[in-house]
Design brief:
Leucine-rich Repeat Variant; mainly alpha; single chain; 2 domains; ARM-type_fold; 3-methyladenine DNA glycosylase AlkD; 13 helices; 222 residues; DNA_alkylation
C-alpha cells in the first residue's frame, strides 16, 4: 500500500537516534521510537496522504490498521491515528470498533487521549449511538476504555451532554486508579471553561466521592 509504505519511509528518513531513547523513556514505552517529534509526524502523514489519498473508508481503515498493528516504532502508531483526522475518518460510526481497538491495544494515555478527539466528533454526528457505546465502555473492565469514555467529550464546549458526563464519571468515582482520577478532573476542568457554575455545583454535590486529585483538577481554573 503506497500510503503506508510512504509514511514508513518518510518517518525513517526523519529519524533522530539521539532523541529516540529520551522519547521512549518519557513515554515509558516498550515499543521503540524513531525520534521524530509529533508535529513532524503530523506533517509527514499529511504530506504522504495528499500524495496517496485513501480511496474510501475501507482503504483508510486498512491503512490505519497496517500502520498500527504492524508498527515497529511508536511514531507509526501516531501516524495511524493522524490518518483518522482525515475527513474520511471524521464522525463515521463504522470506525468505532477501530477506535476501540486502538484504545485497548495501545493501552496508554497518549493513544487514548488522541482517540478521545475522534469520539467527540462521533458524539456530534451520532449522539445517541455514540453515547450508548461510551456508557458501556465506562462500566466495562478495560481501564483505557473507561478513561476514553470520561474524556470523550473534550472540546465539545456548549454541545457537551452533562448527563452523559455524569454517567461515565460515576462508575470511576470509587476507583483509586490515577488515570481515571486524572481524567475525571480534566473532563470537569475543560467543561468549567464553558459552564463554571455547573462544574462548581457538581464538585460540591460529590465532595465526598471525588478524589483530591479529581477535585483539584476540576477547580484549578475556577
Amino acid at each position: 500500500m503506497k500510503l503506508v509504505d510512504g509514511i514508513r519511509a518518510e518517518l525513517r528518513a526523519a529519524a533522530d537516534p539521539e532523541r529516540a531513547p529520551k522519547m521512549q523513556a518519557y513515554m515509558k514505552s516498550a515499543m521503540p521510537f524513531l525520534g521524530v517529534p509529533s508535529p513532524q509526524v503530523r506533517t509527514i502523514t499529511a504530506a504522504v496522504r495528499r500524495e496517496h489519498p485513501p480511496a474510501d473508508l475501507d482503504d483508510l481503515r486498512a491503512a490505519v490498521l497496517a500502520l498500527w498493528d504492524d508498527a515497529e516504532y511508536r511514531e507509526e502508531r501516531y501516524a495511524a491515528q493522524n490518518l483518522l483526522r482525515y475527513r474520511l475518518g471524521t464522525g463515521d460510526p463504522a470506525l468505532l470498533p477501530l477506535h476501540e481497538h486502538i484504545a485497548v491495544t495501545g493501552a496508554w494515555w497518549d493513544h487514548v487521549d488522541e482517540t478521545a478527539r475522534h469520539i467527540a466528533a462521533l458524539h456530534d454526528a451520532h449522539p445517541e449511538d455514540t453515547a450508548a457505546v461510551v456508557r458501556a465502555w465506562s462500566r466495562g473492565g478495560d481501564l483505557w476504555l473507561r478513561r476514553l469514555a470520561i474524556l470523550s467529550q473534550l472540546g465539545r464546549r456548549d454541545r457537551l451532554d452533562t448527563v452523559l458526563l455524569q454517567d461515565v464519571i460515576e462508575p470511576a468515582l470509587p476507583e483509586s486508579e490515577f488515570f481515571l482520577r486524572k481524567a475525571i478532573g480534566w473532563a470537569l476542568r475543560e467543561h468549567g471553561k464553558t459552564d463554571p457554575e455547573w462544574v462548581r455545583a457538581y464538585v460540591a454535590a460529590h465532595e465526598a466521592e471525588l478524589s483530591g486529585l479529581s477535585r483539584r483538577e476540576a477547580l484549578k481554573n475556577l
